[in-house]
Design brief:
10 helices; two-stranded antiparallel sheet
């Protein structure tokens, strides 16, 4: 019996060692794969971001904030650090890692939308896995997402289940200083596929407010931005007003300049959008020009 238990233990240890080695190899490959989130995480974790201005937000930020235009108008260096498929929890994690490996920005442009306070975690969770070998990342991931989600993604190699790594890969680089654009993924992308609603996880809202205060305490200026939406977007009854009221309240509480671009002129032109929530390159260029000029006006006023 002892011999059987000993052999079983050896088999388990060998199997675990194989999984650890396989995980290390796959994670190393994943860190360098050409995919929007992977490319941005690599730039952040390797200290490649050199920016006076950074944009934080979800995919709406990724496809709206175009650094070349911002840099040209403001004569500065900017970077888009939006997180595809995730909201404040991931934005919080990305900023922590950004500050750990890169210099402090002068300005944070914080994009907001109805789902910023969503606690949904599963979508594109694979983007985080390659960096679990980094101790600071692991600790910050657990702090941002909670212990349950951390342990769900911690077991070596098995945590990469339910996806094919090569499906992530693009033929070449797909981001430009964090900016990303893509082709519509359905036949009629400018008709809303669902009704927008305001996600209101109270804990995340409190954490977001604390985050804004912490930026200011660190001497960083902040501008909150609601990005453009195409005119056909549909909200649940009362949700458009609730979303704007929520963002207005947070801006006033934290004394943060807030600009709502959801009704700007470009929102009526379908040639500016990938779908109802995301700008294409044409729209991003026009929006970023307006945003940059507004930033210059607001920051100038703040300093007088």
């Amino acid at each position: 019996m002892k011999g059987f238990v000993f052999k079983l233990l050896i088999y388990v240890l060998v199997a675990l060692a194989v999984l650890v080695v396989a995980d290390y190899a796959l994670s190393g490959w994943m860190r360098k794969v050409h995919h929007p989130n992977n490319e941005i995480w690599d730039e952040v974790m390797e200290g490649k971001v050199d920016a006076d201005i950074i944009a934080l937000g979800s995919s709406r930020a990724n496809t709206a904030f175009y650094p070349p235009v911002v840099d040209s108008v403001l004569e500065t260096s900017s970077w888009n650090l939006g997180v595809l498929g995730h909201h404040f929890q991931a934005e919080d994690l990305r900023y922590k890692m950004y500050r750990l490996h890169n210099r402090k920005p002068r300005l944070v442009v914080q994009f907001v939308d109805p789902l910023i306070f969503s606690s949904e975690k599963e979508f594109d969770r694979v983007q985080f896995l390659p960096w679990f070998w980094d101790k600071a990342f692991r600790e910050s991931f657990r702090d941002s997402f909670g212990s349950d989600f951390f342990f769900k993604n911690a077991f070596p190699f098995v945590r990469y289940h339910s996806f094919l790594p090569w499906e992530l890969a693009y033929d070449g680089r797909c981001t430009e200083k964090g900016f990303y654009t893509y082709e519509p993924d359905r036949k009629d992308p400018l008709n809303s596929a669902f009704k927008e609603f305001l996600a209101q996880d109270e804990d995340l809202m409190d954490r977001f407010v604390s985050f804004l205060f912490s930026l200011k305490e660190d001497g960083i200026e902040v501008v909150m931005v609601y990005p453009p939406e195409y005119k056909t977007i549909v909200y649940e009854d009362g949700q458009w007003e609730a979303t704007r009221s929520c963002m207005d309240s947070i801006a006033k509480l934290t004394q943060t300049p807030y600009i709502d671009y959801s009704n700007m002129v470009l929102c009526s032109d379908s040639t500016n959008f990938i779908d109802v929530n995301h700008l294409n390159l044409k729209g991003a260029i026009e929006f970023s020009d307006s945003l940059s000029n507004d930033i210059r006006r607001i920051i100038s006023m703040e300093r007088e």
